């Protein structure tokens, strides 16, 4: 019986998480996680620090990333597990994505300035430091300046698609991103599949396409899924013969509803993604 406790989706200050890679690994261990993947948005900058901390603590650490992609004019997130962060095409892609995110941030700040909200770009650059600038940084800025009451309010009023400060972004095509992951030795996982608001027919099209591109797994259990959603995703995994992954999508201790390692069990009739990781050496 596998006694490992997996959390294969979380974020550090290398992207939009609140904890440094070291603090994140320490918190994961304190909450019983024995196998952790750090999957920051479009960057591998936090992996070396996190791995060193995990080794010190005797935890299993899995190199990961969460890539922003475009498919059929929809933005989808793909988690890569067991990747080689030094694989040249992937390393080049993350650098390009950092530039794309900076350009997007500049355009978002311009839109906010036109609405009388100044200082956004300087604030988000400072908050992100060496990490990736994300919309969450803008949400935190809007909260800090009392323009909104919460991160969700910021997205609903300013940052979501179609809102005042939204900027369409030329993310990598899905097939290209899956290629970067798989060719680096990793496993491509469709992150939080229900978050995209797809109909059943669109979900079927997506999973068929994703599998043809080399995608091997979907997240069946996240920190936000209820039992019905887990059952729905388990059925998708079985129907399309894909492995199931589990991940909290942890960002911050302030979100009491999402915690490292606090996850429902993967349904027993779904093939675990960690079996694929063992085969690949990830």
Report, as a whole number of angstroms, the end-to-end distance. Answer: 20 Å
Output the number of helix runs.
10
**Percent range of helical residues:** 40-55%
The helix/strand class is: alpha/beta
Order of helices and strands: EHEHEEHHHHEHEHEHEH
Which key features would you list for this structure?
alpha/beta, 282 residues, single chain, globular, 10 helices, 43% helix, 8-stranded mixed sheet
Q: What is the gist of this entry?
A:
The chain is α/β, with parallel strands linked by helices and 282 residues long. Helix content is 43%, strand content 15%.
Record the SSE blueprint.
Elements (H helix, E strand, L loop, with lengths): L5 E2 L13 H10 L4 E4 L8 H11 L2 E12 L2 E8 L6 H27 L5 H9 L6 H10 L6 H9 L12 E2 H10 L3 E4 L9 H14 L3 E6 L4 H13 L3 E5 L25 H8 L2
Parallel strand pairs: 1-2, 2-3, 3-5, 6-7, 7-8
Antiparallel strand pairs: 3-4, 4-6
Structural features, described:
The chain has 282 residues and is an alpha/beta fold. 43% of the residues lie in helices and 15% in strands. It has ten helices and eight strands. It has helices at residues 21-30, 47-57, 88-114, 120-128, 135-144, 151-159, 174-183, 200-213, 227-239, 273-280, and strands spanning 6-7, 35-38, 60-71, 74-81, 172-173, 187-190, 217-222, 243-247. Strands 1, 2, 3, 4, 5, 6, 7 and 8 form an eight-stranded mixed sheet that branches. Helix 1 runs parallel beside helix 2, helix 4 (120-128) crosses helix 5 (135-144) and helix 5 crosses helix 6. The longest helix is centred in the middle third of the chain and has 27 residues, at 88-114. It starts with 5 loop residues before the first strand and ends with a helix.
């Amino acid at each position: 019986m596998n006694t490992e406790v997996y959390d294969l989706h979380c974020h550090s200050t290398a992207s939009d998480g609140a904890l440094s890679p070291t603090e994140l690994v320490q918190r994961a261990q304190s909450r019983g996680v024995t196998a952790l993947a750090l999957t920051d948005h479009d960057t591998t900058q936090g992996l070396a620090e996190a791995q060193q901390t995990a080794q010190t603590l005797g935890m299993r650490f899995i190199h990961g990333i969460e890539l922003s992609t475009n498919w059929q004019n929809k933005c989808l997130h793909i988690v890569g597990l067991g990747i080689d962060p030094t694989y040249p095409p992937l390393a080049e892609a993350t650098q390009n994505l950092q530039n794309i995110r900076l350009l997007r941030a500049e355009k978002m700040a311009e839109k906010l300035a036109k609405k009388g909200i100044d200082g956004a770009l300087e604030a988000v650059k400072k908050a992100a430091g060496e990490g990736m600038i994300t919309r969450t940084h803008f949400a935190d800025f809007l909260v800090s300046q009392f323009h909104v009451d919460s991160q969700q309010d910021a997205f609903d009023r300013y940052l979501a698609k179609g809102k005042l400060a939204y900027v369409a972004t030329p993310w990598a095509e899905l097939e290209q991103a899956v290629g970067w992951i798989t060719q680096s030795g990793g496993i491509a996982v469709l992150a939080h599949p229900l978050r995209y608001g797809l109909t059943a027919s669109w979900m079927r099209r997506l999973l068929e396409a994703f599998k043809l591109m080399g995608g091997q797994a979907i997240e069946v259990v996240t920190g936000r899924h209820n039992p019905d959603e887990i059952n729905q995703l388990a059925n998708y995994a079985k129907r399309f013969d894909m492995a199931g992954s589990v991940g909290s999508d942890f960002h911050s201790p302030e979100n009491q509803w999402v915690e490292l390692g606090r996850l429902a069990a993967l349904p027993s009739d779904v093939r675990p993604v960690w079996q694929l990781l063992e085969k690949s050496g990830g």
